[in-house]
Structure prediction request, 683 residues.
Amino acid sequence: MTTPTWISLLRQKYGSCQIQDVFQGTQMQDKAKALGCGLYVVRNFITEEKAHKLMEGLTAEIKRISFQAGCRSVQIKGNKLWYESLQVLLGNCICTYMYAGTARNKTFREDEIPMMEELNQWLHTEHGCDAANGFHQIVANIYNHERNENTPWHTDANILLKESTEVLGISLGAPGIYCVQPNREHLDSRWGIRQANSTRGDKLRKACIEQGLRACVPVLPGDLIVSTGTFMQHCEHKTMKYKDLTDGTIEKTQEILHRYPATNMASRILLEQPHNWISTTLTDLLETKPNRGVITFRRTDNHWRHPRCPEVPAAATWNNVHADISATDFKNPGQRQQPILVNLEQSDIEEPTTVHVPPHEERTTVQQNIGATRSTQETTPGTTPETPTHEMEANTVDLHGRIAPTAISLGPHMSQQSFNTSRLVVADCQAFLQFLSTTTETLCSKLSTQTPLQQTEILQQIERLANSAQQARRTLAIGEIAVEAYQVMDKLKATVQPLPFPPSSEHHTWIRGTNKRDQMRILVSVGTVMQIFRHADYDAYINTQGIVADLHHISNTTAYHLKGGQCFQLDLNDVFPGIVAMRSIEMRLDYERVMERLNFQPIALPKIQTTEESLSTNDKKRRRAMHEQQVVQDCSTWSECLLKEKRRQMNIEDLTIWPNLMWNAEDVMSMPVVIWIKIKKEK
Prediction:
């Protein structure tokens, strides 16, 4: 049985008279139908009273949490026009919807915003929606009348949504006009607009008007806008500015209808008859309802884009997979490498790293941890040499009253503080495991001399010890990876220059994804960067052109341009044909919120003297060979650092740190990394 869509559920409840097809009877109808685009408006979806309460509640919630980043204003295309925005996640999904100006905003759970939780439950229950059509995110905006706020032309299409999807938007507060036109990226192939240079600004608007491919629909408080099918792929939409809204005059109304010739008859009637559009005049209504609000519901279908989202089917199995973390695994990108260290039979580190811990640190961690246990054992009532079983029970019971050394809380990048913490945890785990080993050996040595009942009890104790050892080995291995990652990164301090952080999310480096040095911010996989390091050009490196490699050495040239909080797919050949010039790298996992760039600083080749004491040709060749070897070593160290750091990041359990990925990160080689590459400038 086919699962009913939202538009079919709405038709069953409200009927065809209350639901209007925005494209019906217009010049856009045939093309929209052929493309699978649908746009509908449900009049009086909620009562005027309910719409008023929702608007009041939304305004109050945004004011309440205004000190947090979640409802921070959004700058529109670099202009000083702002509107308040709030994003709420529904259910178990953690995939956040990033767009221009909000990449670093806080996202809230539905239980943190009670009104959103109540509204979501009503929406699904009232309309008989099943889990297949359930929504995962709410984006709520408020547009201020005095500041003439609106949203510009855009599309909601993003990596979280399927090509065919449904988006619901409830209109609140002041009336508004919802505008539609073809997506400028699909003009020729989909909409048939073939005029040259008509994809921007006035030329696009003129072409759409001439061919009748522009529509608008007035929306009142309580109305519902529903987009279906491939609407978000093939159409752009916006909300009209307050100053452009009709004031009820014939002249103003005709001006709007001229700009939007594909407006259907129902909308024309609403616009042309002021008593239907508003009770008296728009001005009167704005006096009582000065701001407009919209609450939009979206369904996330591509949860796998986020490797830690609980909605990913495979995510549940990751906690039951053992993965070997030996260094040789890094050489095989085709082998699946899951997050490490679960259900281990033995330590994943064949040769544990010896970490020196200062004496005072040992006393405050290891000695207090284990010494307390031993002192308790010595004073436990009833413990005597004549009762070995009871003695063993005292030891193990006391031991199991404690937990293994505290697990490491991994962050998006390695810092000095996290390095020091990791060192202490490693030392704790090593001492703890040694203590468990000694205790287990003691129990095993006494096993043969005990009664069957006592043997059963001892075996149970040994099993609990094994579980504690397993947990400790997991923590130990993660700690050692963290320590090694920092130690390798410390070696690279001489070869990198940290660049300053952008002052805000509205800085041009965030919005445009480029800088003034003709570099572009690109998202690729670790495997791609490894190939760049492996095939780095020597001359380009010493000439401070960055890490440069021929693209024919790169197996996958697909990349993603990061700008305005979104990802745009491209080919590396389109950025700089034939080569890729990597100037900086971002190692952090939370690259959607923080831009921490490390600029490559190669060791320059000393100049050759031109005097009589100049070097011979062979000497020059030998020196060049030695310097080339240094370049290879630098790139090898960088590769090692990248692999260890990304292996560490794979074990981050904090779901909020993980970005929304364009692919499924199954192993180290498929982990995301951000690089800045040179742009080819046309002469």
